[in-house]
Structures are given as C-alpha cells and as structure tokens.
Amino acid sequence: MAVLTEHMLRVRWKKDKSTRIQIEPGTKITPSAREFINQKNIKLVIGDSFKTELPEKESSPVTKEKSFPYVLYENGACLEEKPETMTALFGNQLVYKDFPRIKLRGTLDSLESEILYTIGYLQDWGTKDVLIGLKELYQYVRNIMRAEVRNENLNAFTLLHYNSDEVRKMTHNPMEAFGKDHIILNGEESLEILMLNRLRTKVREVEVLAVEVFRRDKICEREDIVTALNRLSSGFYFLMFKSENKKKPSRIRNW
Description:
Blueprint: E1 3-4, H1 6-16, E2 20-23, E3 28-29, H2 31-40, E4 43-46, E5 70-72, E6 78-79, E7 86-90, E8 93-96, H3 100-122, H4 128-150, E9 158-159, E10 162-163, H5 164-172, H6 174-178, H7 191-214, E11 215-216, E12 219-220, H8 223-242
C-alpha cells in the first residue's frame, strides 16, 4: 500500500506550489500529511501514482491535463471514472450506493412502483375515487423524490380536493368524517382495501428511514419531507375509507 507523507508533499509543493496532487487508490495518508493538505488547501486526485521527481527538462512537451469529472462527496477527492459501487448524490458528487440518502431514494423508487402496480391492478374494477386518489399520491411521491434530489422545498399535497391537514384530521376522526370507526382488518376485506393498507405500511417504512437520514440530534434537516411522508400514510388510510367494499375480481392475479 502506498503511503503519502508530509515530506513528500512538501517536496512537491515547493516545486510548483501545486494544489492538486495525484495519489494511487488506497493510498495511506499520514496525520502530518493530512494537516499539511488542510493548511495548503490541497485537493487529492485518485488516479496516477504520486510523483515527486522534477520534470526532465523545461523544454519537455506539455502533456494535456487529465479531466476529473467526478468528485467524492465525503472528502473532495477527484476521480476520472465512476466506480460501479458508487452513484451520484448531487450532480457529479459521488457516494457509495449504501449511503443513507441513496437508500432513501431506493425506498421512494420502490414505493412509486408499488403505487403504479396497484393502479394497474385496480384499473378495470377499482373504485373511481380510489384510482384518482392513487394517481394524485403517485405524483406526490415523485415530487418528494425530486425535492430530495434537487434540495428543493416541498409543498403539501392535495387529495380529492382536500389538503393534507384536512386529510389527516378526517383520518384521525373517521366517525365524524365518514360515519365509521377506525378500520380494523381481518383479511376478509376487499383486495382494494388490503392493497391500500399495504401501501400505507410501505410509506411508514420510508418515513422511519427518512428520520434516520435527516435527523441531526434534535434537529431534522428535511422536516418538510418527513412531514410529507407522515401525511402520505394518512392519504392512503383516507382512500381506504373511500373504497367501496368490492368483492374480489373473478380472475385472480398475483400481486
């Protein structure tokens, strides 16, 4: 394993005052070298081996500087190519694919696919308001993904002409809103209700992960996203109340 020492850095820096140093992948950096890097604001580039020798002659042809289109999000090092184990967090900033925010994006993507599958399954026989509501909530999940990826603010959703706070209030007091008590499932309900409940629980899982990703001690960096996911689960519960107690379709499909 290559080792980058303070002495090697000083030799190179005195030579050309370079603020970009190339190192081999896996190079070990000594503590004193790390301190020197911070002092001189040097950027490490993962690529060719680190070299300290002087150019052979001043008249030597100037080689074209390599392009480093990718940057490691966590330490600022530059890369020529994107490793298969990494993906873009923002723009050209790379992280490993098990990075918490990438995990969150994966669960949002999975939630989108679950909603789409449910829409397709219910297309021919589902309750009209449920299908309209599912399409609205699907678009809102896409808005959540967009807001997270682009670091944009996220607005609340509307569902069947109700805003998210109204939906939450109705699902907390269903007797007043729907003339029914809270739904307690036993497996004998229609497939429509069972599938909506499945989506409701999927959102809960995404919400818990979002709290893990964005919580910093007692502060949440993206409280708008966490709140949106909380209201989203209420949205699916709301659609369960709007669902008609349909019988299972005559042709059963896997879901």
